[in-house]
Amino acid sequence: MKTLTVGIGCRLHSSAEQIEAAVRAALGLHAFDEISAIASVDIKAHEAGLLEFCARHTLPLKLFSREQIAAMSVDNPSAAAREHLGVDGVCEPCALLAAAAEFDAANASSTAGTSGAPHAPITSNTVQARLLTRKTTHNGVTMAIASTTAHPAREQTNPDTHAQDLP
Question: How far, in Å, CA of 77 to CA of 55, rounded?
Fold first, then answer.
C-alpha cells in the first residue's frame, strides 16, 4: 500500500542516481513501493535529476510554493534554505504537505462539496500527517518521509551535513 510521501531538497543538477541513493538510504525499514509521491519546492519543477527519478519510478512530483512551505513549522531550520529560498526548510514541510494532499485526494469522494484548496492542510478531519523520518542528508540531497497512516514515529539522522545548493 502506497502510504509514504518523500520530501526532497537537492543541490542544483543532482542526478537521478544521487536522488535514488538518498531516498533508498532514508527509507530504512520501509519498502520503496510504499512511496505514493515525491514532493519539493516549485522552483525544482525543471530539475532534470528529480524529474528523471520520478519518471523512472512512475512517481508523481508534487510541488509546493515557498508561501505554502513558509507556513509550516520546521524544528531544525536550514541556513541554506533560508538563504536561497527564504524558507526554513524544504524536505520536511514538502513531505508533510504532500501527505496531507494525498489523504485529502483519497478521501475527496467522501467529502462532497469540498473544494481543493491551494494550501493543503496538515490535519484533515481526524488524520494528521506526520514525519516518519526527519530530514536526512545524503550526498547533497535532503529528504524526509511523511505519512497519514499510523506508523510508529522514528527519527533517523545522517552525519552527512554538507551544505546544499538549493536553486
Answer: 30
CA distance 107 to 88: 30
Q: How far is CA 54 from the centre of its chain?
A: 13
Q: Predicted confidence band at 108 (pLDDT cuts at 50, 70, 90)?
A: low
Question: Which tens digits make up the pLDDT trace of 37-81?
Answer: 999 999 999 999 999 999 999 999 999 999 999 999 888 889 889
| Burial environment of residue 46 by CB neighbours within 10 A (0 to 12, 13 to 18, 19 or more) | exposed
pLDDT tens for each residue of 14-31: 999 999 999 999 998 999
The set of cell numbers assigned to 2 is 502506497
Give the type of residue at 84.
H
Helix axes 48-56, 16-27, angle to 10 degrees: 60
Using DSSP's 3-state secondary structure scheme, residue 10 falls into strand
b/e map 48-75, b = 16+ CB within 10 Å: ebbeebbeeeebebbbbeeebbeebebe
Cα 73 to Cα 84: distance, rounded to the nearest angstrom: 18
Q: Are 100 and 112 in contact (CB under 8 A)?
A: no
Query: Quick one: pLDDT at residue 110?
Result: 54
116: which 3 cell numbers?
481543493
